[in-house]
Amino acid sequence: MEVEKKIRKVVKFHSLILSQPQHTIPISLLDTLARRLGLGFKQHEPGAFLLKFPHVFEVYEHPVQRILYCRLTRKALDQIRDEQEAVVAQIPDAVTRLRKLIMMSNTGRIRLEHVRIARSEFGLPEDFEYSVILKHPEFFKLIDGEETRDKYIEIVDREESLSRCAIERVREFEYRTKGIDAEDVRFSFLVNFPPGFKISKYFRIAVWKWQRLPYWSPYEDISGYDLRSLEAQKRLEKRAVACIHELLSLTVEKKITLERIAHFRNVMCLPKRLKEFLLQHQGIFYISTRGNYGKLHTVFLREAYKRGELVEPNEVYLARRKLAELVMMSPRKAKVDGELVRYRNGFDDDEDDSE
Q: Could you tell me the superkingdom of the organism this chain comes from (predicted)?
């Protein structure tokens, strides 16, 4: 998450530079544009920030105007191209993810704007409204809201084969490989508490009982059920855990901000106090507050990560990791690389002179 904090700002500068003519920007304009983006920089800080990442941003003097400009390095441009190609290549998977996301809605529709905001998390391309929705009329249709001007994505047909949750595959694997009792694994979740988390005897018993508690599937319509009883409320709470688990499983990096989960709260019958609710299930989810001065909360699916890396990486995740590698690469290495290039150019000039 420490790297993620830097990457968020780097990506915003990415977009800023690529939106400019010739994909370059004068250093003198950085302060003004950074304030418009709301990046939280003080005066002269944006330029200093860019200089920290010489493998991503290149500062150079304009040959005619004699003022400093900034552009993306070749490595950064290659990373952007690799990520775009990875996103386009997995559009069929993105279609399936979006179908499953809408099937989790209690109305069979989701606001287009909410999906657009979380587009990156679900691995959708920038033009997903055309390339994913309008291009697949057999799966989706865009409709206008009855009382508002909002657009909604509605699913055309519910395919029951898509109703199988990710946790069900995990349970099947646990049952086949570890020989766990069928009743113990039937409604259970993988629980891995953080280091130092003290588990009392009574808490362990409570977790065991909760693991065996039946619940309704996130893809099941519960509108006709009587939810007033205490038993129904317990099942509804566990269903909310299953919904968030499935939502995270549909993201390409198995993580999403709490604020974006909140966009789907009403259509998925999730609790109002989401942060407090997730903290009650620390063995399943991990919440990080490292971002935007503690105001941004990122929710991770614990079982999907091991030692800070995704257990089952995909091409989009790997492409994004390349940006993290560029951000973490030592500035000293960029200086050495530049000196080697200059040395090599000088060596070639000497060879030309001797000829």
A: Eukaryota
SS3 state at 237:
helix
What is the Cα–Cα distance from 100 to 84, expressed in whole angstroms?
Answer: 23
Look at residues 324, 238, 266 and name the one whose alpha carbon lies nearest to residue 105.
266
Spatial CA neighbour of 98 closest among 125, 66, 65: 125
pTM (2 d.p.): 0.86
What is the reported pLDDT for 340?
38
**Edge-to-edge order in the sheet of strand 140-144:** 109-111, 151-155, 140-144
Q: What angle do CA 192, 120, 331 make, to 5 degrees?
A: 85
Nearest to 266 by CA among 127, 158, 106, 154: 106
**Helical H runs in the chain?**
2-18, 30-37, 45-51, 74-89, 91-103, 112-117, 128, 166-178, 182-185, 201-211, 230-249, 258-262, 274-279, 315-328, 331-354
Predicted pLDDT of residue 355: 46
pLDDT above 70 for 353: no
Encoding tokens for residue 119? 């587009």
b or e along 186-195 (b: 16 or more beta carbons within 10 Å of the residue's beta carbon)? Answer: ebbbeeeeee
For residue 347, is pLDDT > 50? no
Can you give the three-state secondary structure of 50-63, one letter per residue?
Answer: HHCCCCCEEEEECC
pLDDT of residue 87: 95
Beta-strand runs (E) in 19-162: 25-26, 57-61, 68-72, 109-111, 140-144, 151-155
- DSSP letter assigned to residue 252: S
What mean pLDDT, rounded, does the chain reach? 86
Two structure tokens written together for 31: 């302060």
> pLDDT tens digits for 286-332?
998 765 555 678 999 999 998 888 999 999 999 999 999 998 887 76
The DSSP bridge partners found for residue 57 are: 72
Q: Among positive and negative, which fits the CA dihedral 263, 268, 271, 272?
A: positive
Burial class (CB in 10 A: 0-12, 13-18, 19+), 42: exposed
